[in-house]
Amino acid sequence: MSTLRGIVSLLLLTLTTLLWGLPLLLLTLVKLVTPGHRLRLAVLRLLNAIALNWIGLNLWWMRHWLRPRLEIELPEGLSRQHGWLVLSNHRSWTDIFVLFFALHRRIPMPRFFLKRQLIWIPIVGLAWWALEFPFMRRMTAAQRARHPHLARRDQQATERMCQRAHEMPIAIFNFVEGTRFTPAKLATQDSPYRHLLKPRAGGVAQVLSLLGDQLAGILDVTLHYDNPRPTFWGYLCGREDRIVMHTRLLPIEEWMPGGNYQDNASDKERFHTWINALWHQKDERLSHF
Fold first, then answer.
1. What is the four-CA torsion angle of 106, 107, 109, 112, rounded to 10 degrees?
2. FRET pair for 184, CA 20 to 30 Å: which of 10, 35, 56, 211?
3. What is the pLDDT of residues 205-241, one digit of tens each?
4. Mapping DSSP to helix (H, G, I), strand (E, B) and coil, where does residue 164 land?
């Protein structure tokens, strides 16, 4: 029965994507040929509305069909009229929908940092591109040193997203570990944490440097699954155990806006110290579960 439920869930997810995908494709074409910055911005707002409706429809059927066991803790003061930076650990593709359950229409339209390969997913990849999600390359420090022009393209993608945030409120979601947690990756990384991979500070530092004075705050999200090996397929089959989402609101500290993570060694060390301390606190929180 759980496999049948998973098949029906995939069918529902596909149908909602097709339902909202057609108007999104048409608006994407309109955006490509629309002259003038203001008109393109208006089309982007319509694209945002379509994406929010796609999210809302999926949350509706998931709530009634899958009935996920969610325990969500949110701070007060969330608003759709202000920008936010959302930092989270990453366990499964299910994380995205858990974040949607908690934050949909409580904060502005989300923007995720995405792996560049995801742009090739049918319909959805085009939607992310049209909505101006930043597509990033997974590069090690050695690879960035060998190919600095590719690393610079990632920085430029983040800069474009931050420039757009000056024109409309957005919520920037960042899975700071850069990949989903697994015990194998934990061992390979020689991570200092028990339940987390090492955080990547570069993207967070760039957003806070460029956009810190435009954000209402930082939402520090900790996701815990009672199932030690959660999968998105298991979630679609209704087999997932309890999922806990703990969220706390952090202020934008005075030193964050304008910091030069790339070229200033003291700024870089300060960002690393801050995010590593944040990750140690998150690791302790997960240990309590």
1. -120
2. 10
3. 999 999 988 999 999 999 999 999 999 999 999 999 9
4. helix
